[in-house]
Amino acid sequence: MFTHLHLHLRKLFLISGLALAALVANLMLGNSKPFSQIDWLDVVGEGGSAMAVAVWMLLVLGSRPAGRVTNWLTLGMGFMFLAMWQDSLDEFIKIPAGQMWGKWLESGAMPIGIALLTYGLVHWHREQISINQQLLKRERLFREHRFTDHLTHLGRANYLRQQLQTCLNSSQVGTTQLVMLDLDNFSGFNRVNGVREGDYLLHEVSELLLLNLRAQDLICRYAADRFAILLPDTDMETGQRLASELELAVQSFAYKNKQSGETHYLSTGTGIACWLGESAEELISRANRVLEQHKCQRGLRAIGA
Ligand SMILES: Nc1nc2c(ncn2[C@@H]2O[C@H](COP(=O)(O)OP(=O)(O)OP(=O)(O)O)[C@@H](O)[C@H]2O)c(=O)[nH]1
């Protein structure tokens, strides 16, 4: 239920610290009210409201990743909580009439909190629309067989184009990386071991690559033995590291021939292109060109056939 809470410990400490500071300021600068003057209905109503906002905050932070929208929501609810907290303390401690800070905290923080929360909710709404579209597309992938490669169960090149375009529409230049990964001399493997064995190999390599990706990444079978990996919200350095990890995973893989039981070691190369603002098609072409250049530089090593 609160799987993401550890991501927001600093925000929670900050709000708790501010609430504690407000309590200390009230105790030091105000005067305690006699028991007979405490309005318990107000205490329950205002204290209960403050606790309810604190619970909302825990629920939201417990289910959201860190990021801009979460920050707006936290700020909004944080201000609202502090206003209600001061409102509750007010029931026990009277701030002298000359000091306006208590009044400001009680009355000023609430509209600011509501405005910030509203702003955060608008962005959350937009974010949800975009997530819904992604989910819809994923669902379509399973219904729309044109997009699925039956050998690897990955999306095909047409699915990659579609998803890449959607990703670029909501990304900033420089934050999306596209990796192309191609097995070396796969045609040689097919020739020596048969196309059926080649099919098994492709299937297992696709599973291996999937296991090495993050939750937000997308892998598609672009063509024969070429895989395209879309890395959203990723800088160039991280993209290069992930591409090297994929190469290493393939190179460390000891494929067992289904017919003979023989072990085959694979070699592979990658090409990575960082999105510079061009169209999805141009980005794919650039990633393919980088891959081809790397192939030429490496010279082709034979797949262990
Ligand atoms: N087993 C199998 N082979 C396929 C499939 N689709 C394409 N191929 C074969 O994959 C091979 C791809 O050949 P190339 O593009 O030259 O790749 P390569 O031999 O790895 O060459 P380099 O990448 O330059 O090392 C061809 O022999 C195709 O017939 C498939 O679904 N299953």
Automatic annotation (TrEMBL):
Gene Ontology terms, cellular component aspect?
plasma membrane
> Mind giving the lineage of the organism this protein is from?
Bacteria, Pseudomonadati, Pseudomonadota, Gammaproteobacteria, Oceanospirillales
Family annotation (Pfam families):
GGDEF
Q: Which CDD domains match?
A: GGDEF
Lineage top rank: taxon: Bacteria
The UniProt GO MF terms for this protein read: diguanylate cyclase activity
Q: GGDEF domain: from which residue to which, for each copy?
A: 174-305
Which SUPFAM superfamilies does the record match to this protein?
A: Nucleotide cyclase (SSF55073)
| GO BP annotations, alphabetical order | cell adhesion involved in single-species biofilm formation; negative regulation of bacterial-type flagellum-dependent cell motility
Tell me the protein's name. diguanylate cyclase
Q: Enumerate the Gene3D superfamilies for this protein.
A: 3.30.70.270
Membrane-spanning intervals of the chain: 12-31, 43-62, 69-85, 105-124
Query: According to the UniProt entry, what is the EC number of this protein?
Result: 2.7.7.65
